[in-house]
Amino acid sequence: MTDGMSRRGLLLGAASVAAVSGCAGGGSDGVGADGKVTVELWHGQADTARKALEKLVAEFNRTHPSIHVDAGGGGVLSDAMLQKVTAALAAGSYPDIAYIFGSDLASVARSPRVVDLTDAMRDGPTPWTSYWKPVRDAVTVNGQVRAAPAVLDSLAVVYNRKLFRRAGVPFPKAGWTWDEFTAAARQLTDSGRGVFGTGWPGVGDEDTVWRLWPMIWDLGGDVVAADGKHIGFAKQGVRALETVAQLARDKSVYVDMKSGSEQMYQVFLSGRMAMVPTGPWELPDIMTAKIDYDVVPLPSYSGRPVTISGPDTWTVFDNGSARSRAAQEFVRWMMQPAQDVRWDISAGSLPLSTATADRSQWRRHSAETTGLHVFTDALRTARVRPIHAAYPQISQALGEAAVSVLLGRDSPKNAVDRCADKADAALLIPR
User: Fold this and answer.
1) Within 10 A of 96 (CB to CB), how many other CB atoms are there?
2) Which residues contact 226 (CB under 8 A, 6 or more apart)?
3) Is there a single domain that holds both residue 291 and residue 395?
4) Which residues span the membrane (predicted)?
5) Exposed, middle or buried: residue 258 (CB in 10 Å: 0-12, 13-18, 19+)?
């Protein structure tokens, strides 16, 4: 993954969809006088991920003399890419490829300028069935593949072994429960030393929300009910937020009120947080901080393995047949195991396919990175958020509910009732 949890921020609402849906056509076909096709890539990456991507783009350009990928980046970070792309589509001047969060794909895919990649992906050099199910689900809208997978992650719990030993609390094991998690957080909290049992993002954005979905799914709920007109977690959301409320009552949770969760992670990296639900992107910083850590799967209510995966995408836009074909060739090249493994290792992501996971480079990297295999193994049972145009509004409503409970301002039942009122109204809006 790129740049830690910053990529989970900013979910923009349905107002952007109207602009996307009625956009004008793109620019020229992109074929130069020398016959070379130029592809414009807006990637929004920064720091290590940007350097890794630029290196791969340079290699692609060397090995594909008839195509030149311009990796200018788009001028914004990935958090703001939806807004940038929406404005570009409305103006009729948009890139050939853009990095789009998986949770935003349904909104963007309503544009007629988004290229249908069904044939390109399913008939690509890497068998479609070798990609993890969360990858396939995250780019499929109404049975069509509307984007190429870019990065992949999953959630697990990273814990500080030193703090567990000091508090005399046994290390967590796979199959543990949320009751065991809250009890451990309570035991591990030491206000005198400024130590918290765990942390939770408290902004109310997607970073706050997506940690709740595994809890809701485990309880038998879903994001949208089968009738498509109501949320599917009216009861299960209450139970999940009761767990959050227990952490708040125990004062065992550090609530990070700044977007990006950087403060929460800094508390963990400074040795003052015992457990943090996070993804593989955070492991490089944890190792740099020399934390004595390990990784365990998320707790559950049922004892069954459950987690969430949040794949993000390379979405291709139609700027003419030559540029579209060239853009598809680039994203398919990026997905091949030889390139994917290098991108994953550099960007802190997980392998997109079992073929990548079987490569010697990945196996060596996994063996050298404590706990990384836990995140990869979790992909076998991971789920993704639905590709639904109303998802941003549902997420916003649940985020507000979660924050009100984290801050002790409301009961889980009242918070979910208000969430249902807002989210159900969004589901009734014609799409």
Assistant:
1) 29
2) 232
3) yes
4) none
5) exposed
Give the amino acid at 171.
F
| Residues near 85 by beta carbon (within 8 Å), at least 6 away in sequence | 20, 42, 94, 95, 98, 100, 108, 315
292: which residues sit within 8 A by CB, 6+ positions away? 160, 161, 162
Give me the phi and psi of 168, to 5 degrees please: 70, 30
Q: How far is CA 415 from the centre of its chain?
A: 25
Name the 3-class secondary structure at 70: strand
Q: Is 129 a domain residue?
A: yes
**Predicted TM-score of the model (pTM):** 0.89
Residue of 340, 343, 332, 334 lying closest to 117 (CA atoms): 332
Amino acid sitting at position 173: K
Q: Check whether residue 110 and residue 218 sit in a common domain.
A: no
Q: At what angle do helices 337-347 and 321-335 cross, to 10 degrees?
A: 70
Q: How crowded is residue 307: how many other Cβ atoms within 10 Å of its Cβ? A: 27
Separation CA 33–CA 190 (nearest Å): 69
- The pair phi, psi for residue 383, each rounded to 5°, is -120, 165
* pLDDT single digits (tens) 313-366: 999 999 999 999 999 999 999 999 999 999 999 988 999 999 999 999 999 999
Answer yes or no: do 299 and 191 share one domain.
yes
Range of the domain at 242: 156-308+390-427
The structure tokens listed for 220 are: 């038998």
Instruction: Judge contact between 3 and 73, C-beta under 8 A.
Output: no
Q: Based on the domain organization, do 279 and 406 belong to the same domain?
A: yes
